[in-house]
Amino acid sequence: QVQLAESGGGLVQPGGSLRLSCASSGLTFNTHTMGWFRQAPGKEREFVAAIRSSGGYTYYADSVKGRVTMSRDIAKNTVFLQMNNLKPEDTAVYYCAAGITPFMRDFGSASEYNYWGQGTQVTVSS
Q1: Using alpha carbons only, what angle is made at residue 76 by residues 59 and 119, rounded to the nearest 5 degrees?
Q2: Is 58 exposed, middle or buried (0-12, 13-18, 19+ CB in 10 A)?
Q3: Does 104 have pLDDT greater than 90?
Q4: Residues 77 and 96 sit within 8 Å (Cβ to Cβ)
Q5: For position 20, what pLDDT does the model report?
Q6: DSSP secondary-structure letter at 27?
Q7: Across the chain, where does the E strand assignment appear?
């Protein structure tokens, strides 16, 4: 049974940083692409970043490129999302997701991911 558990969210001032973690079980990074999505109140869930199973290539949404870095610790089955220079518009619930790489065509599409965590709240406010 696949389980994803996010942590690290919280309240931060504009310009600050946060590091989100997603601990996974029941899957392997050799075959699963991991993604981060976010959903703000009244808005659709949107892609933030993904890291591909083979090669560990990363992909980022234009809205966060240059401010966000996604990484993984294969030994700990954990992925991370380092977010810097946070803005109020980054406020959202952040979700970790996993998809089976051979079946994925668009890493930025939420419908391509099979497993989801419960989410962690990130609030950027002064």
Answers
A1: 60
A2: middle
A3: no
A4: no
A5: 98
A6: -
A7: 3-7, 10-12, 18-25, 32-39, 46-51, 58-60, 68-73, 78-83, 92-100, 115-116, 120-124
Task: State residue 30's pLDDT score.
Answer: 87
User: Tokens standing for 21?
Assistant: 């973690």
Instruction: Work out the pLDDT band at 103, boundaries 50, 70, 90.
Output: confident
**Token pair for residue 13?**
């001032």
Cα separation, 35 vs 47, in Å, equals 8
**Tokens describing residue 27:** 């899957």
> Do 45 and 95 contact (CB within 8 A), yes or no?
yes
Q: From residue 5, how far is each of 23, 38, 39, 69, 85 by CA, in Å? A: 5, 15, 17, 19, 24
The vertex-57 CA angle with 56 and 60, nearest 5°, equals 130
Cα gap 107→90, rounded to integer Å:
20
Of residues 76, 79, 91, the one with CA closest to residue 115: 79
Q: Is 57 helix (H, G, I), strand (E, B) or coil?
A: coil
